[in-house]
Amino acid sequence: MTDKVLAAFLERQYAEGMALARESDLLDLQPGGGPPVQRYLARFHCFLLSRRPAGEIVKTQGATVGIFFDDQYLRRVDPYTAVVWLCRPEFTWHPNISNRAPLICLGRLAPGTGLVDILYQIFEILTYQRYATHDALNRDAAAWARQNQDQFPVDARPLKRRTRQFTIEEPAAAGGEA
Question: pLDDT tens, 22-67?
């Protein structure tokens, strides 16, 4: 790779993405190719909604998304090729994930958006912490979401494990005050 700025960006994305994956019970991140790494498979182990063939909406677990940083990623980005839905679209049940094609809409994806930011956006979409019902990729899911907002989020666990906060308490003085 001759673009040193892109190479440095990609190296930073790898380090930050793998650090997040190590600190998460809900994300496995598999880099592909490289160095520097430009492709990832992100496997989310959170709860999401799916539609069964008979039409029933059910809570399921697990989704895989492909993320690709092409050579022009820092200059321009096509969100529909940068992030690809790799689950069976016909069972997908979310306003911002197509039920006909491998598309997931993150909204406006600016050039240079970091891997960790993309992973959090995907996670928030999967768990219905974030969704848009206007201009939806799945209109049936959008109509359903408007009527069932009381069921969201479908998974309230954080993507990153919370670190424990320890408090050091002063031991009580023996024998009272001096």
Answer: 999 999 999 998 799 999 999 999 999 999 999 999 999 999 999 9
- Which residue type sits at 126? L
Peptide bond into 153 cis (omega under 30): yes
- pTM for the complete prediction? 0.88
Q: Do the Cβ atoms of 152 and 128 come closer than 8 Å? A: yes
* Domains of the chain from N-terminus onward: 4-151 (3.10.110.10)
Q: What angle do CA 104, 89, 139 make, to 5 degrees?
A: 70
58 CB-near residues (< 8 Å, 6+ apart):
49, 50, 51, 52
Task: Please write the tens of the pLDDT for every residue from 134-167.
Answer: 889 999 999 999 999 999 999 999 999 866 555 5
Asked if 106 contacts 118 with a C-beta cutoff of 8 angstroms, the reply is: yes
